[in-house]
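Possible regression after last week's pipeline update?

I re-ran a chain I had predicted before the update to compare outputs. Posting the input and the new output here so someone can diff against the archived version. Not blocking, just want to make sure nothing changed silently.
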Amino acid sequence: MPTGLRQPLDAAALRPLAARLGCRLAVVAEIDSTNAELARIARGIGGVTGLGAPALAGGGDAQPPGDAQPPGDVVLVAEWQTAGRGRLDRSWESLAGAGLMVSLLVRPTVTARWLGWLPLVVGTSLVRTLRSYAGVAAMLKWPNDVQVAGAKLAGILVELVPGPASPPAAVIGFGLNVTALADELPPRSTSLLLLEVDPARLDRQELLGALLTDLVAAVRRWETSPEQARGEYREVCSTLGRPVRVELPDGTSVRGIASDVDEFGRLVVDGRAFSAADVIHLR
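New output (post-update):
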């Protein structure tokens, strides 16, 4: 592995970018879960990072925990999570410095019917950045597992959080494998390093900046024209057009051809729409 690729992230260097994107940002060495922390902030509890407090005048840093108030867009990055979670309540683990574990707190202005599209919008954004910035042939396995040649590169968890403010908050979390080695990853997973990405593109600082820039812009475009998300998602979803097994929460499963994603973001298999399921690609 090229030396220096697992250096800690520099919060001070990242904050000007976050400010240009209209966000406040913090980087922590360790936390239970970046999503859990931003959910606490969204509920008005204040959290443990100080991001729930008002910003200092002219500084952009968060004040110490105190009188919490609903914040605007907030970005939290952790080098290590003790209780990181993925979709369907699966755990997400990564060695410190080997990946990016990021959560973004937003308050979507779309009507309720479009909220189910947010996880898919996030996935589309990550794929776009990984293709353009890192040069990898990323695709989405429905709903939003980022894969390259069937191996998982990134996972996404979006949670809606009711709180004291209106509209409700959404916490967007993603974990991306950057320099993880094969023996540091779960089965059927990969990393940018293993995909032989140009080492210059493995700098987590620059990579995070590219990801956040596209993601914030993608969320804002979706808020303005939510109906456009469906076409963009179809272009990057590897599940469409192939035989799948849909494993349902009640333990049953359905086999068929994944033909489309409907207007609510649900996967359509042989004419039946699924919103909460685990999908297995079949050969």
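Follow-up from reviewer: compared with the archived run. Helices lie at 11-20, 34-42, 118-134, 204-224, 229-234. Marking as no regression found.
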